[in-house]
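Before a colleague's protein record goes any further, I have to sign it off. What it holds is a sequence and that sequence's fold in token form. My question to you is simply how this chain folds and whether the tokens agree. Thanks in advance; the entry in question is below:
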Amino acid sequence: MTASWGEGMPGVLRLPSGRPVRGRGLRNALDPAVVHPTYGVYLLGKEPSTLAELPWEKRWLRWPDFRLPTDRAQARTVLTDLWERAADPAQRVEVACGGGRGRTGTALACLAILDGVPPEEAVQFVRRNYDRHAVETPWQRRYVRTFG
């Protein structure tokens, strides 16, 4: 039916366990030729009206730009669900915010922790394997360290 993200696809972070997760910025138009996710988590300050138009299963998590999730317990639940779905080779999961760096990078670092990366190494793991500017603010870095 569906297949996981392929090697070398733009924005795809492969966690140490091999689970692939795509990160992206919503401000960048989605190329129609690019494979779509089967499930996405969208980290935005307010629920976008365009979310309903996406033809795949999705979840919105209130997370204002340059800040942290407004409900941290809910964020842990949503990110844990995303991490679990990423283990299924029939799933293509993504996490995205406006620019694809700060909130997305922070969420990817939290997924890396769930996957076994030590909290003090998670930001560097994401910067090395996803985007060197990921996790933009000091409070996002602190959130990652305390996520574990």
In short: The CA atoms of residues 101 and 134 lie 4 Å apart. The longest strand covers residues 20-25. Helices lie at 72-86, 102-114, 119-129, 138-147.
